[in-house]
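Batch manifest line 387
LIGAND: pyridoxal-5'-phosphate
JOB: complex structure
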Amino acid sequence: MGGFIYLDHGSSTPTDPRVVDAMIPYFNKFYSNPSSVYKFAKESNEAKENAREKVAKLLSANPEEIVFTGGGTEADNFAIKGVAFANSKRGNHIITSKIEHHAVLNTCKWLESQGFKVTYVGVDKYGVVDLNELKDAITDRTILITIMHANNEVGTIEPIQEIAEIAKQKDIYLHTDAIQTVGKMSVDVNELGVNLLSLSGHKFYGPKGVGALFIKKGVKIDSLLHGGYHERNKRAGTENIPGIVGLGRTCEIAMEEAEEEENRIKTLRDRLEKGITEKIDDIIINGHPERRLKGTLNLCVKYIEGESMLLQLDYNGIAASSGSACTSDSLEPSHVLTAMGIPPEVAHGSLRFTLGRENTSGDIDRVLEVLPSIVKRLREMSPLRKD
Ligand SMILES: *Cc1c(COP(=O)(O)O)cnc(C)c1O
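JOB STATUS: finished
ARTIFACT:
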């Protein structure tokens, strides 16, 4: 794989070797079930609580407000279904946005089949949630607002603090899917004013299949999984101790290094954006110009398909995406770009580069070297081409 360039950190990231090192003893040395009574179990239990403190610290939360989950999708499902069912006597209405990850959108859709009502609020051309539409959607039956902190396709950062003000006035719970922001920018649950917040290890150099849900003290929420009395009776199932230890270490490293790293990544992203804009005509840069994740560059290249560019990039050893990993199997244009008002034929030409820690200036040079000729060749063959 010499020369392989990974520019798809929005889909997943390599696990930091320091995280792997921290996890290994919990596979082969301290392998006891943390719920067991003998002394040997103490190691697993302490490691788990230690990790909980680290996760809490990164979010400025209390350790008792952190519940470990089997990843980000589970945290989103837990937050939304848990609050919906626990508060169904108060109301049955949920507000979300049209640009959420499918972990949120499809959970809301399923809740509609269970008798809940859901409003999907629109966004502006930058992907920012329309706050007036959100306010207007509130009824006295609204129990939950769930809006993502930053969008995974275009990187736009949503005005969560303002939404929190609105939610608070009406006594409505606010959940945010912060899976794209935790470990990449400052995420402080008090500053944001949220009641629930999801995060996932593998999006910021931690292991896959482990995440957490922040549940502010006092929030009424039902369990998603039923079984033993793990995680203060909030999430049944023997805890994934190696994963949890890994997540704790991931948070610790993010706390120390993320800010500096992200600024370095932003410099690379800006150079990639500038280079592509200069070298290729008829492109659109998607997402908010400033309020955007530092490593994300999403663009539409007119007259060609994103998929064909991806194949050509792959042939040249460059891994990118056309938006979200979860939709790349479908022929539908991105629901995020569509909600932003981009016509379907343009949205089909979307390309997402998400930069990360291992990327170098040389990686950007390589993309700027190969992408213009790929686009030129594909456009020459394209039936959509302008004359
Ligand atoms: C990746 C992602 C998820 C899903 O998290 P998993 O840990 O992969 O289940 C949910 N929401 C957003 C915004 C994501 O980027």
